[in-house]
Amino acid sequence: MRLGELRGLLSRHARPDAGTAIEDLLISKVEKSAPPSPSMSGTVLALIAQGTKRIALGDRVYDYGAGQYLVASVDLPVTGHFVDASPERPALGVGLILRPAAVAELLLAAAPGDLPPVDGGAPSGIAVSDAPDELLDAVIRLLRLIDKPRDRTVLAPLIKREILWRLVTGDQGVIVRQLGLADSSLTHIARAVRWIREHYRQSFRVQDLAQLSGMSLSAFYRNFQAVTAMSPIQFQKQIRLQEARLLLATDSNDVTGVSRHVGYDSPSQFSREYRRQFGVPPSQDARQRESTHHTAPAALP
């Protein structure tokens, strides 16, 4: 019953840009399955009402379908697509951007003993669980407010806070709670992830990233792998190749220029790694995507 109402609300309010009248609330409606495409996950709750989505992070693959949710606690380079979406049965999903400050505020408001302790190890940056009825109910009530502009200003923040509470006390609560803890292992790794994303063209020493994260080299490697399913160098390569793919969409003939722009000194190495990542050489991939019209990719992980 809840999923039926959720599907109806998402179908009615879906927009091409995935946005809604409620801040940080996203709706995804996809009517045609497209090949897996790279994107950044963001820090988000993504709940599926209809269809199935498959996400790859490094060597990990996550499938989640109707009545399940995914939590991403770090902005990670992922590859994903909806499976078997069609105009007759479109994939439908709702997302809520997770703000560390909001999580931190909620943790401070919790009474002693309300939340189990978080251990020192960094959890995976992405996890999937079945959505409990309480979470589905809160998401539905938030979506109903799209039709009630008079109530949105007061009630939307309260319901978003309730959704966060369901997350921090749910199956993936450890992941979400660490998002709001300034001194958690996940937060320290997120600092290194953010540095690589902002400076992906530059070479770096892993020792320097470990120091930035306040960890020993061995602890940094261990926690970075746990969160991202990649080494720091592999992570940088993923960011470079994703950025290159975006740039080639606008200029498929300048492969050498694009390779240098994203930080490669050797165009041949860039072409090899691009082909290994996307299955075709960079110029051919760009031309194929120019000539093929797919439904716009979903905004949710």
Automatic annotation (TrEMBL):
The record places domain HTH araC/xylS-type at 190-288
Q: Which domain of life is it from?
A: Bacteria
What ranges does the record give for the region Disordered, renumbered to this chain?
271-301
Q: Which SMART domains match?
A: HTH_ARAC
SUPFAM superfamilies to which the protein is assigned, alphabetical:
Homeodomain-like
What keywords are annotated for this sequence in UniProt? DNA-binding, Transcription, Transcription regulation
Q: Sorted alphabetically, which PROSITE patterns does this protein's record hold?
A: HTH_ARAC_FAMILY_1 (PS00041), HTH_ARAC_FAMILY_2 (PS01124)
Protein known as:
AraC family transcriptional regulator
